[in-house]
Amino acid sequence: MTTGWQIGDARITPIVEIVADCVIQAGMRDATPSRLLGIPWLRPDFATDAGEMKSVVQAFLIELGDTTVLVDTGVGNGKHRPGLPAWSGLDTEFLQRLAAHGVKPGDVDVVVSTHLHFDHVGWNTTALADGWTPTFTRARHLVTETEFGYWATLPQRETADDRAGFEDSVRPVLDAGLVDLVPDDHELRDGVRLVPTPGHTPGHVSVSVESAGRRAIISGDAIHHPCQIAHPEWNVHADFDPDLARRTRVELLGRCADSGSLLIGSHFPSPTAVLIARNGRGFTVQ
Question: For residue 188, what are the contacts with CB-CB under 8 A and spacing of at least 6?
Answer without folding.
Answer: 67, 69, 110, 112, 142, 194
